[in-house]
Amino acid sequence: MSANKNDSLRNNLYINPQKMENQENQLNIELSPEIAEGIYSNLAIISHSSSEFVVDFIRIMPGTPKANVKSRIILTPEHAKRLLFALQENITKFEQQSGKIKISDNGFVPPVPMGFGGGEA
């Protein structure tokens, strides 16, 4: 993909509310109080098939041998790539304001069962 095409894709990643004010067709996004509270996750497992990406958000508690999926998001490959670009952009902005995000070198990777999710997405 050319640089210009990449830049164009990045500019259309998400809706900028300030830019939307001047558009005729506005999208009204509602956020219920329950969803606004959010769900804490400290592990994400990503799988994919030829037509979709599945992101399972999990909360692992210390000393507990079992962890449940708290939320599952299913994305088209195009939207998964847009999410990737949006995360990259937001991490860059965060690090400019708050400093580099440090990832520990302790090598801890939670064990993920081979049969997790019952097969291909």
The largest beta-sheet arranges its strands as 1-2-3
Given as residue ranges, the uncertain stretches (5+ residues, pLDDT < 50) are 5-13
By DSSP, the count of extended strands is: 3
- Tell me, what's the shape? extended
What structural class results from the helix and strand content?
A: alpha+beta
In N-to-C order, the SSE pattern is HHHEEEH
Q: What is the distance, rounded to the nearest whole angstrom, between the alpha carbons of the first and last residues?
A: 27 Å
What is the CA-based Rg, rounded? 18 Å
Average pLDDT value?
80
What is the percent of helical residues?
A: 25-40%
Can you summarize the main beta sheet? 3 strands, antiparallel
What is the number of helical segments per DSSP (H or I, 4+ residues)? 4
Strand content: 15-25%
Plain-language structure description:
It is a single chain. Helices cover 33% and strands 16% of the residues. The chain has 121 residues and is α+β, with helices and mostly antiparallel strands. It has a domain at 39-99. It has a 3-stranded antiparallel sheet. A hairpin with a 4-residue loop joins strand 1 and strand 2 (53-58). The longest helix is centred in the last third of the chain and has 22 residues, at 77-98. It is extended and about 55 Å long.
